[in-house]
Amino acid sequence: MTPHDQQGAAVVPTTGRAATWLTRELALLADGRPRAHRFLQRVWRNPVAVLVPLAAVVLGIVGAASPDGDAEWFRRAGLGMLGPGVWDVFADAGLQIGVLVLLPVGVGAAVADALGVSAPFLVSAAQGALVTWVALVAGRRATGVTGAPALPAQWAVGVSLALGGVLADAIVIGHTEEVLIGLLLVIAACSAADGRGRRVGGLLGLAVGLKLWGALGAPVALIGRNPRVVAVAGVVAGVIAAACYAPFLLWGEVNTFDYAWTSNRFGLRELVGPGPSDWVVRVGQGAASVLVGCCVALRRAGSPMTVVLCVIATRLLLDSVVTPHYLGPLVVTGMLWAWASRDRATRRAALAVTLLVPAFVVLPYVVGKQVTYLGYAILMVLVPAAALLGDRRATRTASQEQQHPVAPLLGSQKQRLELVRATTST
């Protein structure tokens, strides 16, 4: 007996020694302990019920253990939005964060105060649960577009967020919104592939409401090259973004664009040199990211997630300021791409990629800055390059299978026969 996921596809791979061993062990468990087998099946089929509460508890504890830094700053600003000074929250030029982060954080902190519980714990738990849930949705949507198994992708990405350190690092720094924006752009890209313009616009608008760089995800609307999707998405995203920020621009004091960053690595700022303001350089950085994204989105074939990967990687590669939480969306989006890839070789390598995520999180704390930034630069180039090459290989394989449809069928029949022999042998 082979367990199946909710779409009816096998929950374990159909090739490889590990897959054969796992299939045989599950069959033995089904025969010897049917109740345990049914319980494991239910757990496997419901990652949301397991991973979202797990993330809430683990990341709530992490947040309570590190209550200071930007997280505390955002809680104070969010609480300020609940009073008469709501429209002046962006008078602090250093507050480079969006309304859709500050307001929920303020509400969460107020609820925690009313209940007499730790605000850092409650806010961090809610953020961890939300980001993990969105990641599971993104995993299902991404695999739905490419036809890859959904549950392995959901479990891999969900466990990495809850226990692998990516979200924990973001919680400590106070910037879970970075990963959340990357996930929203993935879902928007998949929605664009399905021709859902309003959903694309809504997700892009939410991304901008979280942080202004979410606007760099606009090229995902070009996926599928559907003018109606582009127009509808643009209007919806514009309305949501205006609703988030226009009241502050009209009725409050906004000093957001007076902020200047301190460079910690070589980036576009150093290439341009003295003269243009930081925000002029940021506009150039954003324009380059959008241009790269448009070029990738207008391809005739390839994964929608590759567009998001290329936009994020270009933004980071040209940025003069890079900290560990900046890399979070690139890492998580890269994992999703690998698990949802149409290329079987890539999906087989996805587990190894996922297991390396904790090493990425620990890297800045065990090596020097120069080595860390070099590793970041390699990652910024390697991840989108791997995605583009993987898409090309998957497209070539699909074309060969269309020209010779019998070969894959015979191969799959042979694999199934081998699995049957391995499963039934004692």
From TrEMBL:
Secretion signal span: none
KW Ubl conjugation (keyword) present: no
Highest rank taxon of the organism: Bacteria
Keywords, alphabetical: Membrane, Transmembrane, Transmembrane helix
Membrane-spanning residues: 43-65, 85-112, 119-139, 151-172, 179-197, 203-222, 229-251, 323-340, 349-367, 373-390
Protein name: DUF2029 domain-containing protein
